[in-house]
UniProtKB/TrEMBL annotation, chain A:
Molecular functions per Gene Ontology: protein phosphatase binding
Identification of the protein by name: Myotubularin-related protein 9
Bilayer topology term: Peripheral membrane protein
One Pfam family per UniProt: Myotub-related
Record-level GO BP terms: negative regulation of autophagy; phosphatidylinositol dephosphorylation
Subcellular location: Cell projection, Ruffle membrane; Cytoplasm, Perinuclear region; Endoplasmic reticulum
Gene label: Mtmr9_1
Annotated organism of origin: Sula dactylatra (Masked booby)
Automatic annotation (TrEMBL), chain B:
Biased composition (Basic and acidic residues): 545-556
Any coiled-coil regions, as ranges: 513-540
Gene name for this UniProt entry: Mtmr7
Gene Ontology molecular-function annotations: phosphatidylinositol-3,5-bisphosphate phosphatase activity; phosphatidylinositol-3-phosphate phosphatase activity
Listed PANTHER family: MYOTUBULARIN-RELATED, MYOTUBULARIN-RELATED PROTEIN 7
InterPro entries, alphabetized: MTMR7_PTP, Myotubularin, Myotubularin-like_Pase_dom, PH-GRAM_MTMR6-9, PH-like_dom_sf, Prot-tyrosine_phosphatase-like, Tyr_Pase_AS, Tyr_Pase_cat
Biased composition (Low complexity): 558-567
Key words, A-Z: Coiled coil, Cytoplasm, Hydrolase, Lipid metabolism
Protein name from the UniProt record: MTMR7 protein
Ranges where the Myotubularin phosphatase domain occurs: 118-496
Signal peptide: none
Domain annotation Tyrosine specific protein phosphatases: ranges: 299-343
Active site per database record: 330 (phosphocysteine intermediate)
Keyword hit for Magnesium: no
């Protein structure tokens, strides 16, 4: 294995590990192809730390005499410090970690080597297939069809092989529409609102350009989703300004003249480096130990993170409102239709559809609206808040989505089957994982990598009862209503579970959570006992009566 | 006044039409909608300001701001009526005599005995006994029995045994307003204590032998330590400025074995302005995230809260960990000193984190030691410069601690909010006047009722479901994170945006858990009943003795499980029967409200002419300049439609 070449010093003794809110521990550091392992065998307190190399965002080294110090900053935002005696060893270890954490070939990633230690009950790669989704849909409406037009990824490289489109539009028309949309992402069904039959579609921007090109098939396709005499809304996730500027590059937006039945609403959701910079600033503020209260608030404000959260949530609420309250269909797009578009469509579904608030429903949502919809996870999640490389395509788009979900969860603490830990787990695995689920940028790449054969799916692991119990919200009571979150600044908070996770003592909050679980568990036990006793009594009484009647 | 409109702060479209009544004690607004007749009651004593705004085509707007952070916007059709209401409210909100206050007319239909019982609920002598006092080091002193030494102190004061009347009186002459050092909290495990006083009249060089003896006596009362901390809670600059006026702070050289320490908490004027600024932020119509965070920072409010907390943490640490006694003072020793002593006590002693203990704490550190409730909370018309949210800050400190230690407090957020409400409401006599002396002269206990009895009676509403007396968080000293954890201090929307229910979580974990716990209790009872019946039945079967049991009927009547299951299955309903006044119904089925909230920033440009010309490309551009949400608007196709629905497009 070529990993051996990269590991110059596989092991160092007498290493001291420093973490916030923990006492320093002395132990042995080992490097393997995919992990950094620190183990302390002190009898009173043996512990091991396993860190995936792919979780390492950046590494710094410092020397004081012959004592070297490595500071490792992880994609999950944790920072650890290792004191390694011996300058050469320290340098070796640092350069090994650097090399191992920046492998450029996907097939060298841990998921291709990981062998599960658990029994696979259900293959996660087959848990959420488009056919099953469509079957559910066709039980309520026959206006839609499954199109295999993209079977070989020949029409749209970032779409899955099968997509749901209006029945009245044939594949030939779809091909033409694809030519008219950025990256060939023609409008497809994202969500069907059973309550009133309204739908949400998503696509990329139309390629109208400066001369106002039009495409009859495109107009026909989206009009096919309208009820006679009804109008629909196009939610453009860009500001009007940005959308107009896009025309110069061949992009653009739907002109009123050609789409008279549609009303366009512009929202302003930021992209790429602006989001990435926000994340970097926010994490910096959270890690800053020196400042006073005023600087904390102004740094929080300057990061703009919560502004993004507010914008995204507002756009999603608007989409949901158009569908549920206005009884109108909606088309959502931005530029490529792979980032802000997906934030809006997936959050709108959480607001509208109670099933998306269950664990399985949420997993299915992530598969449908993020993985299959072609959100480029590998590009976006290559680095996180501590990266120095300022690549254009890195952006915490998915993390922002999870943050918005957390905001809704916080406002409706009893309406979600999953808890905060579930969201944090998804955040971690999107950035570094032993599972293949978040590898690749779209289904096309995933199928070329043969992920479903060569790696394990995250869902195979999560959906086992042992794991599930960790992610269940004890307060959950099915709520079939549409839930309307508040987007006022007073209602939005910093997601401490992610951003302050390593900087605050969590003992008391954990205890509170445990107490909550116990209260509910005890209640359920009692209920079971009472029911059992009732049954027993009823039986005895019937026996009695029968005897009496004899 | 009829045909008055009550505006919703979050949405200008939603206004309720109704009738406004002014009574001797309340402003009452009753909605016209016949089936609900929703009523809004506001006590005159809660009104902090009334503002008459420029008359518009629809009528004359009247803005009422309340001390419990409610803001009421009324539109009165006739300018004349509006003016009359305005004038009456101005008068009614500023009573000049105590007798005008609501507590003298409020009658909860309790007999005399019950009233007396109510006042006995909190007994401070009992409290000092609980601390282990009197003992070998501390005794009760009657030196102030006729308020002869200090008229803002209680008659019964606890002082070190070695401090005789001569020392006390001598010391009192050397202290601002004669507020000599007296015991606030005593830790019986290590004899360390917290004492409080006002600033010494030291000027630039004055000293007082008796005062020095007094501090020495406090030190001696803690044999385990050879010094005491003297904590001046003011910023150093303020304290130094006071020296020019013949006041100031202790000179370490004059006192044997003291360690002097400044903790910069700002004065009441800074705090009043800070709150004012923060409330302005809360009142913004549809603030952006930046507006809000910037405004919050700019108000400095959380910085001040943290300063109070840090002072409390410092003292608690000195007492619990170093075993050193502390003397706390500020200028007069009735504002910052009260805040800091009570925060420290709360951290040190789990008793104060129970419902009863918290009442005792407020009674001890605030009421008995002459916190000037009347001046600070403007119960009677007075100098507006005396008003300041001193106890509000303490209450917020408690909330911040509750957020950090969710299992440590027996009571919940609602308890704090109700106490805050009643500090201003003057419905109960507890917080009237500026001192014990004034309250006795007014015979408050004979003429009014005690809030504590009222809260105690409804204590089930105020329980924190996560509290367990045997939980580790409820034991011993609370140790909050110090320095870098600024992010632990958060904006308390439950208090400052208390009446904007749309802003709060739609489902309350506390209420949910309380319902579960209540059900659990009923299940426990039923289990017992069932167990008994089972045993009886088995016995009777053995005896072949058939009892047509009445019990059977009884259990049917109980029907517990059914009713309760449905209760737990619909979290949006479980607290609808909460009758308490800021009814924080977590009901999230309330879609009307919420649908509107998300649209608020689109409301900016709701001019009808804008929505008309939406189809033109240029029209769209135009719109986008006015509001970032841009977009175009559907002319209402269906006039029968609820007008709310199109709101987000406007």
């Amino acid at each position: 294995m070529e990993f051996a070449e990269l590991i110059k010093t596989p092991r160092a003794d007498n290493v001291v590990l420093h973490r916030p809110f923990h006492l320093a521990v002395e132990g042995t550091l080992c490097l393997t192809g995919h992990h950094l392992i620190f183990s302390s065998r002190r009898q009173d307190n043996a512990e091991e730390l396993w860190l995936l190399h792919s979780n390492i965002d950046s590494i710094e080294k410092r020397f004081v005499g012959s004592l070297g110090t490595i500071i490792i900053k992880c994609k999950d935002l944790r920072i650890i410090q290792l004191d390694i005696p011996g300058m050469e060893e320290c340098l070796n270890i640092a350069s090994s970690i650097e090399a191992l954490s920046t492998l450029d070939s996907v097939t060298l990633m841990y998921p291709f080597f990981y062998r599960p230690m658990f029994e696979i009950v259900e293959d996660g790669w087959r848990s959420f297939l488009p056919d099953q989704e469509f079957e559910l849909l066709s039980s309520v409406t026959d206006e839609w069809r499954l199109s295999c037009i993209n079977k070989e990824f020949s029409v749209c490289p970032s779409y899955p092989p099968v997509v749901i489109v209006p029945k009245s539009v044939d594949d030939e028309a779809l091909r033409k529409v694809a030519m008219f949309r950025h990256g060939s992402r023609f409008p497809v069904l994202s969500y069907y609102h059973k309550k009133n039959g309204m739908v949400m579609m998503r696509s990329s921007q139309p390629l109208t350009g400066t001369n106002g090109r039009r495409c009859k098939e495109d107009e026909k396709l989206i009009n096919a989703t309208l009820r006679p005499g009804k109008r629909g809304y196009i939610i453009d996730t860009r500001s009007l300004n940005v959308a107009q500027q896009a025309r110069a590059k061949g992009g653009g937006f739907e002109q009123e003249a050609h789409y008279p039945q549609w009303r366009r609403i512009h929202k302003c959701i930021e992209r790429f480096n602006i989001l990435q910079e926000s994340l970097i600033k926010l994490v910096e503020a959270c890690n800053d130990q020196s400042h006073n209260m005023d600087r904390w608030l102004s740094k929080l404000e300057a990061s703009n993170w919560l502004t993004h959260v507010k914008e995204i949530l507002t756009a999603a609420c608007l989409a949901a409102q158009c569908i549920d309250r206005e009884g109108a269909s909606v088309l959502v797009h931005g530029t490529e239709g792979t980032d802000s578009t997906l934030q809006v469509t997936s959050l709108a579904q959480i607001i509208l559809d109670p099933s998306c608030r269950t664990i399985r429903g949420f997993e299915s949502l992530v598969v449908r609206e993020w993985l299959q919809a072609g959100h480029p996870f590998q590009q976006r999640c290559a680095q996180s808040a501590y990266s120095n490389s300022k690549q254009k395509w890195e952006a915490p788009v998915f993390l922002l989505f999870l943050d918005c979900v957390w905001q809704i969860l916080r406002q409706f603490p009893c309406s979600f089957e999953f808890n905060e830990q579930f969201l944090i787990m998804l955040f971690e695995h999107a950035y570094a994982s032993q599972f293949g689920t978040f590898l690749g940028n779209n289904e096309n790449e995933r199928s070329k990598l043969k992920l479903s054969q060569k790696t394990m799916s995250l869902w195979s692991w999560v959906n086992r009862s042992e794991e599930l119990s960790k992610f269940q919200n004890p307060l959950f009571e099915a709520n079939s209503l549409v839930i309307w979150p508040s987007v006022a600044p007073q209602s939005l908070q910093l997601w401490e579970g992610v951003f302050l996770r390593w900087n605050r003592p969590s003992k008391f909050l954990d205890e509170a959570h445990e107490e909550m679980i116990n209260i509910i568990k005890y209640n359920k036990e009692l209920q079971a006992k009472v029911n059992a006793l009732r049954r027993q009594l009823a039986e005895m009484e019937t026996d009695d009566r029968m005897q009496e009647n004899l | 006044v009829e045909n008055v409109r009550l505006l919703d702060r979050l949405s200008s479209r939603k206004a309720a039409l109704g009738t406004l009544y002014l009574t001797a004690t309340h402003v009452i607004f009753v909605e016209n909608v016949s089936e609900t007749r929703k009523e809004t009651w506001v006590l005159h004593s809660q009104i902090s300001s009334v503002e008459k705004q420029a008359t518009t085509a629809t009528g004359c707007p009247l803005l009422i701001r309340c001390k419990n952070f409610q803001v009421i916007q009324l539109v009165i059709p006739q300018e004349r009526d509006c003016h009359d209401v305005y004038i009456s409210l101005i008068r009614l909100a500023r009573p000049v005599k105590y007798e005008e206050l609501y507590c003298f007319s409020f009658n909860p239909k309790l007999d005399k005995e019950e009233r007396e019982q109510g006042w006995k609920l909190v007994d401070l002598n009992e409290e000092y006994n609980r601390m282990g006092i009197p003992n070998n080091y501390w005794q009760i002193s009657d030196v102030n029995r006729d308020y002869g030494v200090c008229d803002s102190y209680p008659t019964e004061v606890y002082v070190p045994k070695s401090a005789n009347a001569h020392i006390i009186v001598g010391s009192s002459k050397f202290r601002s307003r004669r507020r000599f050092p007296a015991l606030s909290y005593y830790c019986k495990d290590n004899n360390a204590s917290i004492c409080r006083s006002s600033q010494p009249l030291s000027g630039f060089s004055a000293r007082c032998l008796e005062d020095e003896q007094m501090l020495q006596a406090i030190r001696k009362a803690n044999p385990g330590s050879d010094f005491i901390y003297v904590v001046d809670t003011r910023p150093k600059l303020n304290a130094m400025a006071n020296r020019a006026a013949g006041k100031g702070y202790e000179n370490e050289d004059n006192y044997s074995n003291i360690k002097f320490q400044f903790i910069g908490i700002e004065n009441i004027h800074v705090m009043r302005n800070s709150l004012q600024k923060m409330l302005e932020v809360c009142e913004l119509k549809s603030p952006s995230m930046s507006d809000f965070l910037w405004g919050l920072e700019n108000s400095g409010w959380l910085k001040h809260i943290k300063a109070v907390m840090d002072a409390g943490i410092f003292i608690a640490k000195a007492v619990a960990e170093e075993g050193v006694s502390v003397l706390v003072h500020c200028s007069d020793g009735w504002d910052r000193t009260a805040q800091v002593c009570s925060v420290a006590s709360l951290l040190l002693d789990p008793y104060y984190r129970t419902m009863k203990g918290f009442m005792v704490l407020i009674e001890k550190d605030w009421v008995s030691f002459g916190h000037k409730f009347n001046h600070r909370y403007g119960n009677l018309d007075g100098d507006p410069k005396e008003i300041s949210p001193v106890i509000d800050q303490f209450i917020e400190c408690v909330w911040q601690l509750m957020e950090q230690f969710p299992c440590a407090f027996e009571f919940n957020e609602r308890f704090l909010i109700h106490i805050q409400h009643h500090i201003y409401s003057c419905q109960f006599g507890n917080f009237l006047c500026n001192s014990q002396k004034e309250r006795r002269e007014l015979k408050i206990q004979e003429r009014t009722y005690s809030l504590w009895a009222h809260l105690w009676k409804n204590r089930a509403d105020y329980l924190n479901p996560l509290y367990r007396p045997d939980h580790s968080q409820t034991q011993g000293t609370l140790r909050p994170q110090m320095a870098p954890c600024n992010f632990l201090y958060k904006f308390w929307s439950g208090m400052y945006n208390r009446f904007e229910k749309g802003l709060h979580p739609r489902q309350s974990v506390t209420d949910y858990l309380m319902a579960v716990k209540e059900e659990t209790q009923q299940l426990e009872e039923e289990l017992e009943v069932l167990g008994e019946r089972l045993a009886n039945l088995q016995k009777s079967q053995l005896n072949d003795n058939k009892v047509k049991s009445k019990q059977q009927d009884r259990s049917k009547q109980l029907g517990l499980s059914n009713s309760n299951n449905s209760l737990a299955n619909t979290p949006q309903e479980y607290s609808s029967d909460l009758k308490s006044f800021p009814s924080r119904s977590p009901s999230q089925g309330d879609e009307e409200d919420s649908a509107l909230i998300l649209t608020q920033d689109n409301l900016k440009s709701s001019d009808p002419d804008l929505s008309a010309n939406s189809d033109q490309e240029s029209g769209v551009e135009d719109l986008s300049c006015r509001s970032p949400s841009g977009g175009s608007c559907l002319p209402s196709e269906d006039s029968g439609k609820d007008s709310d629905e199109a709101v987000f497009l406007a």
